[in-house]
């Protein structure tokens, strides 16, 4: 079993992926572009483990051992011998392209190159490499140490072997995997939440039910932990509008056409919890 992991990007997601992997016994090289970003990333990991130890969910010795398995670097060449690489840099195609071009030059030929992108087609990322069959989507959820799901996405050329290695990796770090067999916009999770939020916002916009009642219907009727409109407020109405817009553009499926209300909310700055006003007032 492959045991050396490289994580590119030490932000929210990259540090979380490094954390759960080191905890599961992987040797992790965490790469970012500045020492400050690396320090921020490792500080986040350390304080998360401190909390686990304080709550009795982890032994202090295990936290120390896991920390010793993480090395940090600003040098991309240091990831050359990784078995699996997970990229978690900014959600911008040109930044991801730069990384995957560089990875293609330096990383072992048989390594698996995974992207944690939330929405960029894996096929587009893989296209700048000479090994698109070794590129796969590995979409973790935030906060990574708490969220159980990893959505694995097959690009147009991803091989069965690559998918199998990615699955083995994600399961080894304690995640439950769902496989997305075609590289569709929004994968499975963002497509589902987008369709639900769009319909919930339409019902609310047309006065069919109040925001509270729509959310209560999903919580108590379907056992959802949180209703779709509260979820939209938490994620950001702007973020969801952008996500549904992308899916609509790619699929031309009108169930992803967001209602005008969502656009006006974003125009007004009512984007949810982070602004104090969304479908609810905070
Ligand atoms: N935040 C979420 O809830 C979430 C959930 C799932 C997936 N994602 C995806 O994960 C990826 C990362 O998101 P995040 O929230 O961790 O972002 P973030 O802004 O917290 O971290 C990004 C990190 O990448 C670093 N970086 C930028 N260019 C780099 C380069 N060339 N080499 C190495 N490091 C570089 C930055 O310095 C920063 O530390 C994005 O693609 C995002 O869409 C995010």
TrEMBL record:
CoA binds at residues 48, 55, 118. One of its GO terms (biological process) is fatty acid beta-oxidation. The keyword Oxidoreductase applies. It comes from the Bacteria. One of its GO terms (molecular function) is NAD+ binding. SUPFAM superfamilies: 6-phosphogluconate dehydrogenase C-terminal domain-like, NAD(P)-binding Rossmann-fold domains. InterPro entries: 3-OHacyl-CoA_DH (IPR022694), 3-OHacyl-CoA_DH_CS (IPR006180), 3-OHacyl-CoA_DH_NAD-bd (IPR006176), 3HC_DH_C (IPR006108), 6-PGluconate_DH-like_C_sf (IPR008927), 6PGD_dom2 (IPR013328), NAD(P)-bd_dom_sf (IPR036291). This is 3-hydroxybutyryl-CoA dehydrogenase. Residues 186-282 form the 3-hydroxyacyl-CoA dehydrogenase C-terminal domain. Residues 4-183 form the 3-hydroxyacyl-CoA dehydrogenase NAD binding domain. The record marks 139 as: Important for catalytic activity. Pathway: Lipid metabolism; butanoate metabolism. Keywords: Oxidoreductase. PANTHER family: 3-HYDROXYACYL-COA DEHYDROGENASE FAMILY PROTEIN (PTHR48075), 3-HYDROXYBUTYRYL-COA DEHYDROGENASE (PTHR48075:SF5). The keyword Oxidoreductase applies. Belongs to the 3-hydroxyacyl-CoA dehydrogenase family. It comes from Streptomyces inusitatus.
